[in-house]
Design a protein that fits this description.
Structural class: mainly alpha
Number of strands: 0
Number of helices: 22
Distance between the termini: 32 Å
Order of helices and strands: HHHHHHHHHHHHHHHHHHHHHH
Shape: globular
Helix content: over 70%
Strand content: under 5%
Number of domains: 2
Length: 418
Amino acid sequence: MSLNQIIKFKLEIFIFVLFFAIRFLFLKISGFDNFELQPDSYWYTIQSDEILRGNFNLIRPLFIPAPFFSYFQALIKFIFSSHWMIALEILQIAISSLSGIFFYKLSDLLFKEKQTATFATILFCFYPLTIWWVGTFGQDIWFQSFLIIFFYYFIKSFNDNSFRLLIVSAIIFSLTFLTKSHILLFSIFIPIIILSKKNILFLIKFKFIFTFVIISLISTLPYGIYNLIVNNTYSISSSGTGGSFLIGNNEEAYLNVVKLDEITVEQKNRFQDAIFVIFDEIKPKLKNKTQPEIQEIYFLEGLKWIKQNPKKTIELKISHTKRFFMPGISPYWHSFKNWIASLIVTGPLYFFAYISITYSLINKFKEHFWILSLMLSMFIFTIIFYYSSRFIVVTLEPYYIIYASNLLVAIKNRFIKS
């Protein structure tokens, strides 16, 4: 081992230990259990129990969820038995800590500036909105960690013109979309990103694209074929496009976003879990229908509401757009203390990130097109389906931290000479 390799190894160990310690302390001090912050945690646990009983069908009334977390949780239960909760919690802290190492490497890869990488990693280590999900038994911390690792290998594969690293990135991307399916919208930009690279011959680019697509498709086969046989639908990841569309496009979804002052107490309680009366109203239509037919019914109901309410639809989409670009959480759904705390943290982050991203795209568009693609994919999801602050936190905000950090370091170096 060379001296540089030893230093690099020690740094990575330090990052892992620091991330692990901070996240472990948060879980012990906060007092939150592994379920209370995200209601989905309860049905994930039920699903993993069913898997252990031999029932591998994850289908729910609204959709078929992405498979990774339920099956992984079942595996942890099988291996660790009565100690599974402790084991899963430690593993979630560990994957989040591992992502801290790749976060540093990605920051350094993007800007080739150790100060930026160091500062960004420190901010990400203590970033409360990420730490918040570390102990929750759900998809979020796994998805965020996989996505960070994917982007490191994906971008490095072009910098090094490495086919091997591209294969690694495709495998990690498969794990990512098998954890949360909304990232599949980003996949439409992957061929464009590959084609935009200058240092790779066209035939090699085609080879990269073909390989990435094949690996991604192969990863869908076990779950996809199983659902094709059992539920009459080939599920690439999750299969709730129609249900998600209806969640974001109905009368109560409009109230939930645009007319908060008109919501009753009963509605507020339901809306927190996206429980809308439209789903009860159309239940008779779903009887004896296949999963593809159910999703089509959901989609057509959402489309009908849009056609009948063009003005409300425009208001709804404008509101979603504002929420997409604005920092912080909703003051209506959260306490004033939590709202102001989130604004203090995310306000400066968004401000500096937007400036840095804009500057990077103007000066080195092709090198930073990936972040624009990621933002566009999340914006498309928000406009077509619905706004989710949780999705923004785990999908976009880590990279906002990197770009904001680069600008802040540049400002510091400009005005504070070392």
